[in-house]
Amino acid sequence: MFVEIADAGGVNSAARRLGLAKSIVSRRLLRLEDELGAQLVARTTRGVVLTEAGAHFRDEAAKVCAVIDNAREDMSPAGALRGLLRVAAPASFGRQLAPVLAELAQRHKDLHVHIRFNDRYVDLAAEGFDCAIRVGYLSDSNLVARKVGELPVRLYASPTYLSEHGELQTPSDVLQHSCITPGADVWNFRRGVETIPLRPHGRFKADNAFVIAEAAARGVGIAVLGEIIAAPYVAEGTLTPVLQSYDLPAVGIYIVRPQGQHLPRKVRVLIDLLAEAFATPSAANAR
């Protein structure tokens, strides 16, 4: 319970994660401090802050929790998974992840699987997730990341947009067009050993791949999309790939988790299922 309070940053958040009343968690925290003879947290209007003693005790308590989790896994029947697996995943990729997550729940009937789909980057420790699935060009962070697959991407535009604004012949033509992006992107076009980095600009930005695809299909601008996202639009003729003689780096699919944390078997099983579903030669590489 104390580890949950420390990681969640407050009694209220810990109570929600534990499924307990706030009053119960508060009483247990006070009882723990009385037993230890030390103040573990400093109460503030925004939650709690660990004292020096609390930070030390949290680290030692987390080790105990990891040992207990390992023991429980070792005592489970071969292949059986139990407990709760909390996963954060991007909403833009939910349609592709749904079969994998449903397969996990179907195979392991004693495992509770809770998934939150959100296109923002969540704080895994503070929000109580065992792991997160992230799709993109992963930046350096304090998380442990395992690559489980890749998604090919291309530049797309609607036929209507191209008829109004002209075809693209070279990557530099991108700078003359309205581009749809999640944010301050750089598009790295490749042909052979040559790489051409360009910073697109445009008036429409969104953090959801399906919103970007829909805007591109309606002629708002050009966009880089995963082939799996663009495929239905290409099939119905509302999007078409452009600059096909140039490649763009594939987007990685990763499982990320906090550093220093024991890798639970339930997370390892999820990694294996994702690697099987999105198998690529680089899927076995760990980072």
The protein's oligomeric status is single chain
Beta content comes to 25-35%
The helix content, as a percent range, equals: 25-40%
Q: Architecture of the largest domain in CATH?
A: 3-Layer(aba) Sandwich
Helices and strands, in N-to-C order? HHHEEHEHEHEEEHEEEEHEHEEH
Query: Which regions contain 5 or more consecutive residues with pLDDT less than 50?
Result: 281-287
- What characteristic shape results from the CA principal axes? elongated
Q: What's the β-strand tally?
A: 14
Write down the CATH topology of the largest domain: D-Maltodextrin-Binding Protein, domain 2
CATH class call of the largest domain: Alpha Beta
Please report the number of helical segments. 10
- The fourth-level CATH homologous superfamily of the largest domain is Periplasmic binding protein-like II
The biggest beta sheet reads: 5 strands, mixed
Distance between the termini: 31 Å
Strand order of the largest sheet: 4-3-5-14-6
Q: Quickly give the structural class.
A: alpha/beta
Number of domains: 3
Q: What is the alpha-carbon Rg in Å?
A: 23 Å
Average pLDDT, all residues: 86
